[in-house]
Amino acid sequence: xxxxxxxxxxxxxxxxxxxxxxxxxxxxxxxxxxxxxxxxxxxxxxxxxxxxxxxxxxxxxxxxxxxxxxxxxxxxxxxxxxxxxxxxxxxxxxxxxxxxxxxxxxxxxxxxxxxxxxxxxxxxxxxxxxxxxxxxxxxxxxxxxxxxxxxxxxxxxxxxxxxxxxxxxxxxxxxxxxxxxxxx
Length: 184
Hints:
Blueprint: H1 3-9, E1 25-31, H2 41-52, E2 56-63, H3 67-78, E3 85-89, H4 100-104, E4 110-111, H5 113-127, E5 137-141, E6 144-149, H6 153-175, H7 177-183
Parallel strand pairs: 1-2, 1-3, 3-6
Antiparallel strand pairs: 4-5, 5-6
Helix pairs in contact: 2-6, 5-6
């Protein structure tokens, strides 16, 4: 290892995870015009994974496939004091009523393109080239990490278990770091 590698490995002496949040409040938003919360296997899978990891569900809602309804719901959810992350399911495909991405992306202060890239890479092993039809995306809106997942139960399990639960404590801590430091 040369000095250059060592410099990067130690991250300038800072603890890279110093701002990680220990307990998270996560809002779940199911986007569907045909489902109800009582019949929502994708939302159930997200909820089980969040609670199984020791986090809280701050709120769970369902909204129809409507651009303004989705945008208003996500905007309201990121504004909640008890919400460190928002996970949506549904509306990320290519049918005319798949408008989650168009509704949510304008709310992002920062985009997280690596999420969609990694999600599609991991999904490829399961669904092959069909990954080109998923527009899973993520970003930071009003200091809150927002992840938009497809509506299938397998897709949300992959996204929540393999990526979101691993990275949300870190992203949520960093996204709110300036707010926390202003309060000190």
